[in-house]
Amino acid sequence: MKTYSIALLPGDGVGKPVTEAAWDVLQAVAKASDFALEGTTFPWSCEFYKQTGAMMPADGIETLRRFDAILLGAVGWPAEVPDSVSLHGLLLPIRKAFAQYANIRPHRLLTGVSGPLKSDDFDVLCIRENTEGEYSGAGGRVHQGTADEVAIETSIFTRKGVERILRFGFEQARVRRGKLASVTKSNAQKHTMVFWDEITRELAAEYPDVEVASYHIDAMAARMVMAPETLDVVVASNLFGDILTDLGAAIQGGLGFAASANINPDRSAPSMFEPVHGSAPDIAHLGIANPIAAIWSGAMMLAHLGESDAAARIMVAIEATTKAGIGAIPGRDKTETIAKAVLERLL
Ligand code: NAD
Ligand code: IPM
Ligand code: MN
């Protein structure tokens, strides 16, 4: 029997219960299929940082490299560890080290979930550049603590990086509804964003079958609320994609519904699957985190591993759950109730 080795990184706050729920569902679907999942849990988190002084051991990346995939909950507990330390110590280095340059985030309404928009008719696939751009980490501060203090955070966009994420988007558009929206802010940022627009135009010539449009990020934010049905694949830089996908989560009913996949398309290293949301410190003690985003991310993991039937079965079970009203209203049901309902509906 085929066995996949999965690294589990529950992380902080609600990351823990939602990862547990996703893992239960994944195990159940594996049991009913012809493959097995072998999980190894790593306690890397802000708690781990407090005990050891690091978010993961020095050889953490090398440890993760031998797994077929990584399932992550959420990282960050800002009351105790600054986000600039925790995220740069665990989540962001994994995305970068494993060249998980395509962060795929689907936004559509699950059956039975009401979003805040007038129209329920949208199915947007956000593809976020995940390894460079505004998240390059280049910069610094000078004259610290003085009236002349300056802080610089430099965005780095490489031709290789921009080309590969746009190409990934074009390929996705080809197998979806044939439309690609490229998002920049080239009216204000004249180096990086003009560069991105140029590469979009160059690639558009290679994909005459894909209808391409470029939007400014501000206009795209409005469009996602006013007319999301006009969108198919949306490709954006690291920061813009981050912001747009919380907006995407909002239009699909909340952060508890938004799944994501950090993909290494070359398969030269493991890909990582995680909900879009964070550790949700405001609700972490209440037991009401919605595990659907994490379970959906687990389905994306199975699809990536080639277990598409099992992935589809999870999606059917999720939608049967929300259709029955369970987990459909943020904050109403317990994490375990929703997870149990999904488990019961696995065909
Ligand atoms: P957040 O996503 O944790 O929470 C935003 C809002 O969404 C909160 O009101 C929260 O209660 C709600 N929410 C989140 N997940 C939910 C779920 N599963 N079910 C129901 N409601 C949910 O964002 P934040 O508050 O800005 O960040 C908290 C911490 O998480 C910070 O340390 C931040 O840096 C980190 N973070 C980590 C990731 C990640 O690991 N991928 C993502 C985002 C934020
Ligand atoms: C996400 C998160 C992260 C990001 C943070 C926690 C660094 O918001 O996965 O969307 O911005 O990538
Ligand atoms: Mn985010």
UniProtKB/TrEMBL annotation:
Q: Which residues form a coiled coil?
A: none
**What EC numbers are recorded for this enzyme?**
1.1.1.83, 1.1.1.93, 4.1.1.73
Q: Which reaction does it catalyse?
A: (2R,3R)-tartrate + H(+) = (R)-glycerate + CO2; (2R,3R)-tartrate + NAD(+) = 2-hydroxy-3-oxosuccinate + NADH + H(+); tartrate + NAD(+) = 2-hydroxy-3-oxosuccinate + NADH + H(+); (R)-malate + NAD(+) = pyruvate + CO2 + NADH
* GO MF, one example: tartrate dehydrogenase activity
> Which cofactor(s) does the record list?
K(+); Mg(2+); Mn(2+)
Read off the SMART domains from this record: Iso_dh (SM01329)
Which biological pathway? Carbohydrate acid metabolism; tartrate degradation; 2-hydroxy-3-oxosuccinate from L-tartrate: step 1/1; Carbohydrate acid metabolism; tartrate degradation; 2-hydroxy-3-oxosuccinate from meso-tartrate: step 1/1; Carbohydrate acid metabolism; tartrate degradation; D-glycerate from L-tartrate: step 1/1
Where do the Isopropylmalate dehydrogenase-like domain residues begin and end?
5-342
- Write down the InterPro entries for this protein, in alphabetical order: ICDH/IPMDH (IPR050501), IsoCit/isopropylmalate_DH_CS (IPR019818), IsoPropMal-DH-like_dom (IPR024084), TTC_DH (IPR011829)
Q: Where is the protein found, in the record's own terms?
A: Cytoplasm
For this UniProt record, the keywords arranged alphabetically read as follows:
Lyase, Manganese, Metal-binding, NAD, Oxidoreductase
A GO cellular component annotation in the UniProt record: cytoplasm
Similarity-based family: Belongs to the isocitrate and isopropylmalate dehydrogenases family.
Q: Which function does this protein serve?
A: Has multiple catalytic activities. Apart from catalyzing the oxidation of (+)-tartrate to oxaloglycolate, also converts meso-tartrate to D-glycerate and catalyzes the oxidative decarboxylation of D-malate to pyruvate.
Q: What is this protein called?
A: D-malate dehydrogenase [decarboxylating]
